[in-house]
Amino acid sequence: MILAFLVSSNAREAIVPFLVVWSACAVGLVAQLRVIAAIPRLNLGSSTTVDVHRKLVDFYERHALMATLVQSMTGPLLFVTGTMLFFLWKYAGFPQFDHQDFMVFGSGTLLSFALSFFPLRGISQRQRRYITANLSELEGEELDADRISAHRSGSNRLFLMLLILVLSGLAVLFYFIIGRS
């Protein structure tokens, strides 16, 4: 795909925004590898539950934002790749880009990042609150059955919303693939 992009007749005008996003994704990959290396190595045979939760809380406090930022780069990567494939399919190359095209492309890239970042940040904060609450309960040695059932119902609701979004996305994808043929 990149080779087709580079041999396109109008690639010089479009290569800068594509390379900016791809290089940001490459930097994100390196950052993701660093975050993965920072995940606490848990020896569950010798660690207590309280120690495991303390390590997880510490990990979330130090690395949650970076992990969320890096995971959010998936949205722009998919947007850029999809745009490239659309141009190759529709125009058999890349059309001339003017200033409005760059603004639309940049806005779409930022929007795809925002649509990835804010839900992932919410999920990360929810996980942090849940682990912190578990740690405080373990240290206090009291369990809250209502909070556990509320977490389960919240998880079920979140799963249902995610399933609806995935199915809607697949329906739109199939509409454009089958409907345009």
Automatic annotation (TrEMBL):
<keyword id="KW-0472">Membrane</keyword>
<keyword id="KW-1133">Transmembrane helix</keyword>
<feature type="transmembrane region" description="Helical">
    <location>
        <begin position="101"/>
        <end position="120"/>
    </location>
</feature>
<keyword id="KW-0812">Transmembrane</keyword>
<feature type="transmembrane region" description="Helical">
    <location>
        <begin position="15"/>
        <end position="37"/>
    </location>
</feature>
<feature type="transmembrane region" description="Helical">
    <location>
        <begin position="158"/>
        <end position="178"/>
    </location>
</feature>
<feature type="transmembrane region" description="Helical">
    <location>
        <begin position="64"/>
        <end position="89"/>
    </location>
</feature>
<protein>
    <submittedName>
        <fullName>Uncharacterized protein</fullName>
    </submittedName>
</protein>
